[in-house]
Model the fold of this input.
Amino acid sequence: MSRRHSLRLLDRLRHALRVRHASPRTEESYTNWVVRFIRIRNTRHPNTMGAAEIEMLLAELAVNGHVSASTQDQAFSALQFLYQTVLGIELPRIDWQSLNLRYFVPSGARPSFTSFRRSRYLS
Done:
């Protein structure tokens, strides 16, 4: 049931993107993010999930996936499109940018970036 329902959901997602003349690459990317979101949440349908699960995915990407803010932005945009356009569910405000700042600190990059900024502003 879950797989069949997901296929219908993905078909609806693709159709909504094509109606809006999204590029094939955008369609592929959004579809991949939605599939990843469903699989990470143990194949639950997005109707049964909400903002908390989206925040968990974004935090997971930052902490364990070590992805950039733009990658998180793309994942968030795909899920926001899914919920608002395809499912017609209005999500509460998700402050995902603070998630990025709170959870993602690249290993080794923080001290050098800080010292660079200090030297730039002090001289």
